[in-house]
Amino acid sequence: MLFKLIQFDEEKSVHNSINGMAERFRKMLTEPGAIELPGCYDTLSAMVLEHVGFKACFLSGYGVAASLLGNPDIGLTSLSETAMATKNTTNAIKIPLVVDADNGYGNEDNVVRTVSELEHAGAAAMIMEDQIMPKRCGHSANKKVLPLDLYMKKLNCALKARQTPMVLIARTDVAEINEAIERVKCFHDAGADVTLIDGLQSLEVAEKVATRVPGLKQINLIYGGKTPILSAKKLEEMGFKVLLYSTPALYVAMHSMMTSLKMLREKSDLNVISSQSMPFKEFQAFVETHYFKRSYTAHLNNEDGPTPEKKAS
């Protein structure tokens, strides 16, 4: 697989990505060790993931649907909304962002546009699944998928549409594991950089995937989901390269807000949640520090804060 990644750079006439993150993530795939890929649901949560030391992060379609629209993950988020969330996030962080592109938002023409929009938004990689509408979270029941030949048309269009080294992760949601393995073998043979069988339901099934699927493999772990939660060390030993933790930021934030704000509502005293809350100055310092670290805002940094707008005389 290392040869395949190098071959892409040498034989494809592509432009560099707008932020260099596709190149960085592609390099990470060739280096030793597994990549831990925690999910964010907006720009601020991505900044936190970067701040605590993760080397890459994942823009969760599930998380964007919930946080931006208050919707379940059933395909209601549009490409425009995903691209805007991607652009806002890549402008704010300096680590690769892998983007959940659902099923490419339609047919082959939609897929080509999806690739272009996410490349221009600065995505380091995109994940495209084989579900039909209405699509569902990978750990949900009753998922339906495209016939293999139709998904392969979409995948080939995505691969050919790339104008940058953006990594393409091909995902299947087929429930029957042997069929799923045969599908991702086809994805790998077609040129997908990484493959993902979502919703693995046991350690035995995960081991089968790790053994029988060629190339670089991703596994998706969700707290309370279908797949058994194993350590990064164990998953790496099994043969998984990308360890996707789809929802930790979303679930931790939701749990904290529900617990603390319920307490505030009951006690009507802001002091009762002070121990669970970041104080004003600390939050301001976090946001302002990250803002002034960006290349296009560094010249604005001064002790007095942002310069007031001058009114015309």
Can you characterise this structure?
The chain is of the alpha/beta class. The protein has a single domain (2-253), classed as TIM Barrel. It contains twelve helices and eight strands. It has helices at residues 2-11, 21-30, 43-51, 61-69, 79-92, 108-120, 148-161, 177-190, 203-212, 232-238, 248-267, 280-293, and strands at residues 35-40, 57-59, 97-100, 125-129, 167-172, 194-197, 216-221, 242-245. Strands 1-2-3-4-5-6-7-8 form an eight-stranded parallel beta barrel, surrounded by nine helices. Helix 5 runs parallel beside helix 6 (108-120), helix 6 packs parallel to helix 7 and helix 7 runs parallel beside helix 8. It is globular. Residues 6-10 have low confidence and may be disordered.
Give a summary of the structure in a few sentences.
By secondary structure, the protein is α/β, with parallel strands linked by helices.
What letter string, H or E per element, gives the SSE order? HHEHEHHEHEHEHEHEHEHH
| Percent helix range | 40-55%
Strand content: 5-15%
How many strands, what sense, and barrel or not for the largest sheet?
A: 8 strands, parallel, barrel
Q: What would you give as the CATH superfamily?
A: Phosphoenolpyruvate-binding domains
**What is the number of domains?**
1
- Poorly predicted regions are 6-10
Number of strands: 8
In CATH, the topology is named: TIM Barrel
Total number of helices:
12
Please identify the top-level CATH class.
Alpha Beta
From the N-terminal CA to the C-terminal CA, the straight-line distance is 64 Å
General shape: globular
User: Any guess at the CATH architecture?
Assistant: Alpha-Beta Barrel
Q: State the strand order across the main sheet.
A: 1-2-3-4-5-6-7-8
On the 0 to 100 scale, the average pLDDT is 90
The secondary-structure class comes to alpha/beta
Cα gyration radius (Å) = 21 Å
